[in-house]
TrEMBL record, chain B:
This is RNA polymerase sigma factor. The keyword Transcription applies. Residues 127-179 form the RNA polymerase sigma factor 70 region 4 type domain. It comes from the Bacteria. SUPFAM superfamilies: Sigma2 domain of RNA polymerase sigma factors, Sigma3 and sigma4 domains of RNA polymerase sigma factors. It comes from Streptomyces sindenensis. Residues 23-93 form the RNA polymerase sigma-70 region domain.
Length: 281, 195
């Protein structure tokens, strides 16, 4: 075949190159062509997923969905520096490997997907996590309950997910790394227990962009992490929170009392916030 | 690529609908671009492309598992597409070249990251080439598009055309010669302007 190609180029020369420019790399097919083919052939909608590419603060996001729920999402910008961007073809192939159905491009996002991405409130978006082991699904469901603009440490996620107590941080981070619906299951809101973001499934920059768009001030978060203070109390209410909790953010600077651990806070006579639940109630 | 083709035919053999969705996902673009280049019109490429896949699906339903397993999906689909186009040309009243054609060429130019080939060719040049292709006699148009636009090997081409490899080579060579003649008057003008 190589020999064939050389021959073609030498005999056709410039004209061959000009014709090649009209080929697959130089032309675009209407976005919904394949989808219309399947509809016309009468293939049942449950046999394939469709997908769109949407813009997020961290760049393009491919989102695949079936008739009932989102079935996968992946950022175009990939893990680590120097990695090539995810192409539609790669996304289609990895989706196929993961769920066993073809992902067919469409230009119509399902109802609720765009607003969920715009506002970061994706908690009530239907996402199909049924293919995952029970523990992984519990971890991702716990992550889904973190409100936009807030961060939660791995130990909190493990507890909310109902994992047995113990050194489960690595199991949680593993589940985060395998998140099949990046951004929509907001793993960018998960941190290690020292307060540094996990960003297990994508580059740190992508995570920072997503957090920035939700109004999380990463400079402050990093300062906190460096200082070793992971909880924030108010000396007027004697309640302590995760520092990014909506209630903690309302404490005026003069009344902020930082704590390293929940035990320190309890010793000082503080109780845990019931919204962000820094310890099990 | 070979692995991918094998996986696809295996899937077609065992699960027709699941295999067909993969067939469409992988090859829709190839079929569409082939038809776009032989018809010169995006609208016609779209219609004929739909017909091509519908025929493919109907045919697959009648095939045995072994026959589906033995398919060469890309060559097979392009064979159907070429037949669909030939039938279309035969049955429809030949329409004059519409203004739509050159527009198509420019629309398609705008997208994608330009490789070296694309950069060398201007949108105007592409328009001229698309125009010349649509004037090429039908017997040469399919071979030239298959070989030089789609980049098929002569072996694969011969399968699509159902002819010996030597015949395929000869058709491409004659087609190119014919295409050069069609382009010549314009190219001469272009050289004059350049000087």
């Amino acid at each position: 075949m190589n020999h064939d190609n050389e021959e073609a180029f030498s005999s056709s020369g410039d004209l061959g190159l000009r014709l090649a420019a009209l080929g697959p790399r130089g032309a675009t097919t209407p976005e919904d062509f394949a989808l219309r083919v399947l509809r016309r052939a009468g293939i049942s909608r449950s046999r394939y997923d469709t997908y769109v590419r949407l813009e997020t603060a961290a760049g393009g996001l491919f989102v695949a969905f079936g008739p009932e729920a989102v079935t996968g999402a992946e950022l175009e910008a990939r893990h680590g520096p120097g990695r090539e961007r995810l192409t539609p073809q790669w996304f289609e192939e990895s989706h196929r490997r993961r769920v066993g159905r073809s992902a067919i491009p469409t230009d119509r996002a399902p109802a609720g997907l765009r607003p969920a991405l715009r506002t970061g409130r994706a908690r009530h978006l239907a996402i199909d996590l049924s293919g995952l082991p029970v523990d992984e699904r519990a971890v991702l469901e716990a992550v889904r309950s973190i409100p936009p603009g807030q961060l939660r440490p791995v130990s909190w996620i493990a507890r909310e997910a109902g994992l047995p107590p113990g050194p489960d941080a690595r199991a949680v981070v593993r589940s985060l790394a395998r998140n099949p619906a990046t951004v929509l299951v907001p793993c960018h809101r998960a941190t290690h227990d020292d307060g540094t973001p996990c960003d297990a499934a994508y580059a740190r920059e992508a995570g920072d962009a997503l957090r920035g768009a939700e109004g999380i001030d990463m400079v402050t978060v990093r300062q906190w992490a460096r200082g070793g203070d992971t909880l924030l109390g108010s000396d007027t209410t004697h309640i302590y929170c995760h520092p990014t909790c909506a209630h903690a953010r309302r404490i005026t600077p003069a009344h902020r009392v930082p704590f390293r651990t929940a035990r320190d806070a309890h010793r000082a006579g503080y109780r845990a916030c019931k919204s962000c639940r820094p310890v099990a109630a | 690529m070979d692995d991918e083709a094998k996986q696809l035919t295996e899937l077609l053999a065992t699960d027709l609908d699941g295999g067909f969705t993969e067939l469409v996902r992988i090859h829709a673009q190839v079929v569409h671009i082939f038809l776009l280049r032989v018809t010169g019109s995006a609208a016609e490429a779209d219609d004929l492309g739909q017909d091509t896949f519908l025929r493919a699906y109907t045919a697959l339903r009648g095939y045995s598992g072994d026959r589906r397993r033995a398919l060469l999906p890309r060559a097979w689909l392009l064979t159907i597409a070429a037949n669909v186009w030939r039938n279309h040309v035969r049955t429809s009243v030949r329409r004059p070249v519409s203004a739509m054609r050159v527009e198509d060429a420019e629309d398609l130019w705008s997208d994608g990251r330009p490789g070296p080939e694309e950069r060398a060719a201007t949108a105007e040049d592409r328009g001229r080439l698309v125009e010349a292709l649509s004037q090429l006699p039908e017997i040469y148009r399919v071979p030239v598009v298959l070989r030089h636009v789609m980049g098929l090997s002569y072996g694969e081409m011969a399968q699509v055309q159902g002819c010996p490899v030597g015949t395929a080579k000869a058709q491409v060579s004659r087609g190119l010669r014919h295409l050069r003649r069609l382009l010549e008057p314009q190219e001469a003008v272009r050289k004059d302007v350049a000087m």
